[in-house]
Amino acid sequence: MAMRKPGYIFAVAALALGFVVVILGAYTRLVHAGLGCPDWPGCYGFLSVPQSESSIELAQMRFPDDPVEVFKAWAEMIHRYAAGLLGMVILGLAIFALTQRRRPGYPVGLSLGLLALVICQAMFGMWTVTLKLWPQVVTAHLMGGFATLSLLLLLSLRLSGSLQPLVPTRSVAAARTLARVVLLVVIGQIVLGGWTSSNYAAVACVDLPTCHGEWWPDMNFAAGFNVFHEIGPNYLGGVLDGPGRTAIHFSHRLGAVITSLLVLLLAWKLASAGLGKLAGLLVAALVTQVSLGITNVLAHLPLAVAVAHNAVGAILLLIMVAVNYRLRAPARHGYPAANESRSALASH
């Protein structure tokens, strides 16, 4: 059995913090606080949210076109503080990985890649504000958060030494191929969800299973999926007309149907390969996510449900990462853990 590597607890803590950051980001977006502070990295020129009469007056002098809304400013700054803390933790993981670079099999490259990703995330966080919620940047920032979370899970799994590769069989090989496809489909559906959110299209259709009472409503896909939006306008609240938003929302619905069918097929394949627990987790996450999506439409996007929809989407992605890690092909000359154990014995 593979031994747990140093830094495992540190990585799990970073994973938990990363999940909190993703949820805070979703909450900030859903309460329309993405521009709660019109500057970056501070807030109206302060390190924290201006609250006294004098500081609010000074803030309004500095940004006369952006009235101070303390609640939204705090939502934005708490998200920034948490993201900054996560960045420091990932920096610590990268530095620690460099000290362990002589240890066989230690994921140094993955740790450094995480650091590079979180630096890019900081840049996208800045552009989210300076480009006034430009949908392309907001969606990329969301995907960067999900990617960070996925890589933190992968780092935790590699450091844990658990979930060794399965004995190669025909059913395992078939499940492995399908799992890779489904992972890509889930990622695509999350991108669609991010595009829906960043263009404020979540309530473009408020009935089910039809949209505006029609099976194929009036839609403008060219406008809805125009990735060359003009830079300059304030995109808070969105700028697309009805048919453009409807096209985005409808596409997300169709994506949900395709994703659900493929995830269920994968769950069946996993159960056939002897991975009933993973299959059960996958189905549970899928059913919860679909239920939350339906509730969002019928109840007109309640805040708690919308935040939960983001959270369970992240969980579904993490389960898919774990599934693909579990189904990975064993090393050519035996399991990596076995090779590492032999190297450790040889060094003593």
Automatic annotation (TrEMBL):
Pathway membership: Porphyrin-containing compound metabolism
Gene Ontology CC entries for this record: membrane
One annotated GO biological process: heme A biosynthetic process
Compartment(s): Membrane
InterPro entries in UniProt: COX15/CtaA_fam, COX15/CtaA_HemeA_synthase
Any one Gene Ontology molecular-function term assigned to this protein's record: oxidoreductase activity
Membrane topology: Multi-pass membrane protein
Alphabetized UniProt keyword annotations: Cell membrane, Disulfide bond, Heme biosynthesis, Iron, Membrane, Metal-binding, Oxidoreductase, Transmembrane, Transmembrane helix
Transmembrane stretches, start-end: 81-99, 106-127, 133-157, 178-196, 250-271, 278-299, 305-325
Keyword Metal-binding found: yes
Main location: membrane
Protein name from the UniProt record: Cytochrome oxidase assembly protein
Organism: marine sediment metagenome
